[in-house]
């Protein structure tokens, strides 16, 4: 909705409130307990999730409007039409120019379609092999399929259709996304009317508007401001809503949401700082909606619909997946968090996790507690000091892409209790982050947790149930490994345990016949050694260690005539 311009005196009062919220806070949480570190930090407006419905034109200051308060850092750079940080504002426009000058034809068409399409439709392609089923079973549609070869006229009417049907097979997902998208509470127009920061193509002729939209952009009124990007806000609302319902594509949907922001820069519509603000706004609005008790039934219905045969059961592996490359997705997403801006503020402020932000991970990490999900957000958050991102609550520094890959650091003992009977991520998950810290991992329950990162956590790993899979040479970190019950499975050919290894009689070690487990210290062996695929080689070393006690009670998976022998420093295959 459009916000009527207010008198300068009222706007100036609002700017004073904006600036007040961004004063640096003294912190000493480095020595606090984990509980204190994870406690939410109250902003001048309170907590976004408690006050998000106050983002309406009735509330016009940082103290009573959470959207204004959360994005208040921008007022240190530019406020009420006044340039307060010329170097940063120049860099912002220079980045806009560089992106518009180097866009490819494919990026031009994508950014045009992002501009024209309903953004709820625009995130569907992030579903990859599930996208055709979603389009069919949600009756999703768009009138925009190609970019015109000539500029659209100023009076071109924007075609509007119902993007999807709430009464379709996937109607509960459609209803859920409709509820969270294009809402009054996510409106960035109030912030725009206060800050009054011009669109990038109006700052510099070096910013090249998308040709197909050039006439429309040139004719836009002077009050059509840049910060913060409403399209990006909506893109994150749509992507995160669909990711909650269908977490199997959580990171792909996040990447597409960030791409919607980039598309706005590519088209010349918005600057990098404007889309960074949009990411923060959309994230906070969805988290607030997920915490609203009145939305819980709708959320469950959306999740259940997504996991029916109409979507999860209708995968088309022949479909091209634009987001199939995890590493590229991660690099793209993290770049778009900062757009290459350098840290200009204090780089040593500890992470704050906003109140209610853990709800964003509820379906992606369902086997963790709310406190653990907050810890994941705490240990994967971005460093402080980047422009715009140091809001009081911590919305700007949330790295949800990394958080979806588990902990970034074990600050204490972390117990992961999975229940395979529940299926999905409860049965199998993969933590791809490089996990550091002094803490330890305790794998409990019945599911399988895979560690794929270059891990350095020092507290060791203990398996008391289910399966712990080691998928990199350093997955076990730097500590001891103990298998009390359940199994340790090597998914990499070579894995190193840098401490001691101990396996009880109820434990199992599973590895391929050509895999090798290096134990830097001592080994205490019992239980089962299970060998799977791979080539048999006489004399091959399966385990090496400084020295060992005991032997495996059972060895399975060997053909007749093969067995294992124990030497002072190894367990070998022998025929």
Short description:
The chain is of the alpha/beta class. 32% of the residues lie in helices and 15% in strands.
* Number of DSSP E strands: 19
Helical region count? 19
CATH superfamily of the largest domain: Phosphatidic acid phosphatase type 2/haloperoxidase
Task: Estimate the global geometry from the Cα principal axes.
Answer: elongated
User: Structural class of the helix and strand makeup?
Assistant: alpha/beta
Description:
- There is one protein chain.
- The protein has 575 residues and is α/β, with parallel strands linked by helices.
- The protein folds into two domains: 8-402, Phosphatidic acid phosphatase type 2/haloperoxidase (Vanadium-containing Chloroperoxidase, domain 1); 407-574.
- Helix content is 32%, strand content 15%.
- The protein is built from 19 helices and 19 strands.
- α14 (250-266) runs antiparallel to α15 (272-291) and α14 (250-266) packs across α17.
- The longest helix is centred in the middle third of the chain and has 20 residues, at 272-291.
- The chain is elongated, with a radius of gyration of 26 Å.
């Amino acid at each position: 909705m459009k916000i009527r311009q207010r008198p300068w005196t009222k706007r100036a009062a609002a700017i004073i409130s904006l600036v007040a919220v961004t004063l640096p806070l003294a912190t000493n949480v480095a020595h606090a307990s984990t509980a204190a570190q994870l406690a939410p930090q109250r902003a001048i407006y309170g907590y976004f999730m408690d006050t998000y419905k106050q983002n309406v034109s009735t509330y016009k200051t940082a103290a009573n409007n959470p959207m204004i308060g959360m994005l208040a850092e921008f007022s240190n750079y530019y406020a009420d039409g006044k340039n307060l940080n010329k170097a940063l504002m120049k860099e912002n426009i220079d980045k806009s120019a560089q992106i518009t000058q180097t866009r490819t034809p494919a990026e031009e068409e994508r950014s045009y379609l992002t501009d024209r399409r309903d953004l709820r439709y625009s995130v569907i392609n992030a579903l990859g092999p599930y996208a055709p089923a979603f389009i069919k079973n949600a009756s999703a549609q768009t009138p925009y399929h190609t970019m015109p070869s000539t500029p659209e006229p100023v009076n071109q009417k924007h075609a509007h259709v119902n993007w999807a049907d709430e009464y379709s097979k996937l109607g509960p997902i459609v209803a859920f996304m409709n509820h969270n998208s294009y809402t009054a509470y996510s409106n960035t127009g109030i912030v725009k009317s206060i800050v009054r920061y011009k669109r990038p193509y109006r700052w510099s002729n070096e910013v090249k508007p998308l040709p197909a939209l050039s006439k429309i952009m040139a004719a836009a009124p002077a009050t059509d401001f840049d910060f913060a990007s409403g399209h990006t806000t909506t893109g994150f609302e749509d992507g995160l809503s669909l990711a909650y319902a269908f977490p199997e594509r959580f990171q792909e949907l996040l990447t597409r949401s960030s791409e919607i922001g980039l598309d706005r820069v590519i088209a010349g519509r918005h600057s990098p700082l404007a889309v960074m603000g949009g990411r923060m706004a959309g994230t906070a609005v969805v988290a607030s909606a997920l915490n609203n008790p009145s939305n819980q039934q709708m959320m469950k219905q959306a999740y259940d619909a997504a996991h029916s045969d109409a979507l999860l059961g209708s995968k088309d592996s022949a479909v091209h997946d634009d987001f199939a490359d995890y590493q590229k997705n991660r690099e793209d997403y993290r770049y778009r968090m900062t757009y290459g801006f350098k840290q200009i503020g204090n780089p040593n402020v500890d992470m704050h996790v906003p109140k209610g932000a853990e709800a964003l991970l509820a379906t992606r990490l369902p086997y963790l507690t709310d406190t653990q999900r907050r810890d994941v957000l705490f240990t994967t958050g971005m460093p402080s000091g980047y422009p715009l991102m140091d809001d009081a609550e911590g919305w700007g520094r949330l790295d949800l892409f990394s958080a979806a890959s588990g902990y970034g650091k074990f600050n204490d003992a972390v117990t992961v209790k999975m229940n395979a009977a529940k299926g999905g991520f409860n049965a199998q998950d993969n933590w791809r982050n490089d996990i550091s810290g002094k803490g330890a991992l305790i794998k409990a329950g019945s599911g399988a947790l895979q560690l794929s990162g270059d891990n350095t956590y020092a507290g060791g790993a203990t398996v008391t149930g289910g399966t712990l899979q080691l998928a990199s040479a350093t997955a076990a970190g730097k500590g001891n490994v103990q298998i009390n019950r359940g199994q340790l499975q090597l998914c990499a050919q070579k894995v190193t345990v840098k401490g001691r290894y101990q396996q009880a009689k109820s434990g199992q070690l599973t590895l391929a016949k050509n895999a090798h487990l290096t134990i830097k210290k001592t080994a205490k062996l019992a239980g089962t050694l299970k060998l799977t695929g791979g080539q048999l080689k006489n004399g091959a070393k399966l385990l090496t260690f400084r020295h060992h006690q005991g032997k495996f009670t059972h060895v399975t998976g060997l053909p007749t005539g093969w067995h294992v022998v124990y030497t002072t420093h190894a367990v070998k295959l022998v025929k």
